[in-house]
Design goal:
6 helices; about 75% helix; about 140 residues
Amino acid sequence: MLSKLKNAVRDILTSDSSPFEIGYGFGIGFFIGFIPVYGFQTIVSVLAAALIKRANRVALILATQLFLPFVIPFVVAANFFTGSLILYGKVAVFRIQDISDVFVYFLPIFVGSLPNGLLAGFISGYIVYRVISSNRKKNEKREK
């Protein structure tokens, strides 16, 4: 798994894509990681990669894969807190006693995922853009 990750990062760094396209793809993938399509994130990211032309496809799919099972509970909690604040004006208590409670909490989780995903996607995409831009400038200086 680690070697696949290294290969994906190497593919991104050596691609002909601009830093903007890589950052844009990564940001979109990070956004997808926040929306509540758990278990289907890879499918959604592959569809998004096919539909969004300016985004680096590998970066988009890779960013989505960072949302591993141990990260999802924190993302769901953040989305729920944000969504309940938006919908109800206060942070509601998150208590699941049986499986039917999941449907009660879906709306706040979905609503919270949009601003959280947009913010996280923008920040992560910008960071990746800056890192790739800086890395390429350093490489250009070395080659001269």
